[in-house]
Design goal:
It holds the Pfam family Glycos_transf_1. GO terms for molecular function: glycosyltransferase activity. The protein is an alpha/beta fold. The protein has helices at about 15-25, 60-65, 80-95, 110-125, 135-140, 160, 185-190, 205-215, 235-245, 255-260, 275-285, 290-305, 310-320, and strands at about 5-10, 30, 55, 70-75, 95-100, 130, 150, 175-180, 200, 220, 250, 270. The protein folds into two domains: about 5-155 and about 310-320, Glycogen Phosphorylase B (Rossmann fold); about 160-305, 3-Layer(aba) Sandwich (Rossmann fold). Helix content is about 40%, strand content about 15%. The strands form two sheets. The protein has a seven-stranded parallel beta sheet with strand order 3-2-1-4-5-6-7, sandwiched between helices. Strands 9-8-10-11-12 form a five-stranded parallel beta sheet, with helices on both faces.
Amino acid sequence: MKPVLFVTNHAPPFRIGAFKALHERENVHFALIGGDVRHGGGGTGDEELPFPVIHPPQRTVARIAASGRYRAVIAGLSGKVALPAAYAGARAGRIPFVLWATIWAHPRTPAHALSYLPLRHIYRHADAIATYGPHVSAYVRTKHPKGPVFEAPQAVDATFWGAKATPDRRGEFQILFAGRPTREKGFDVLKDAFDLGTVVVANDRTPEQLRNLYAGSDVLVVPSLPTRDFLEPWGLVVNEAFHQGVPVIATDAVGAAAGGLVQDGRTGLIIPHGDVVALRDAIERLRDDPTLRHTLGENAREAVAAYTYDAWADGMSRALAAC
């Protein structure tokens, strides 16, 4: 059976398990085009990757996709040239094209405005689409796709993040912020709640250090804001925290909340983005109710168990099978 060509930018550590699971099912060759890494870390040396990798210039992707060596093409949204090239190559080679859709709103910048019409065409004419979750699926369906839409749930390494940790606890009530302390991540909003507990900002920590901080924290806060060029696609820190049984306060601008992993009053609390009063109220509610914290945390641990690398690979495989 011919392999599948998967065009994406990088194979960062948090994706390797998912890519490996898909390769074991479908025989996938990954074309890593490189480029900026905005979310979640860079790549890994090819010698460490458990699947075949090539590093083509973006301009050559169409020729590779149309070469006859592959039975289908999957492509994510990365690369100004790579995505349309992958689509064009699949069409030229008369093989199925699957779009891996990751956003739930198109960025509102002049550069992104130029890409909207070509991307809308791909949404409409892809043979199948695999998405990050229900929130992305809902957005994709507004583009009236002709092909079926499947969900490939976002996942992290459950064995690692769910393992027993050494709690890193620095205060009586510990609030964790895991990520870049930038405007789009809502850090300025969180600053107005610093007086409600011991706030730990975890940026550039090793995975082991971050796992210990999850284990030592009472709540993870993900206060992301929408901007012209950013709407949190998911937020894998939510999955990581849930594996340690830590509840999450997330805004309605976080993909993991819009996509159903963070469920208000069940696995965490969802608040309006940019609302300092709502954020303070949510933090105080969890601070003052340890029973609620425990219940949300246990529910969170149970909910995230379904978000596995195999579940992601299954969603991608179903998209391929539908073509």
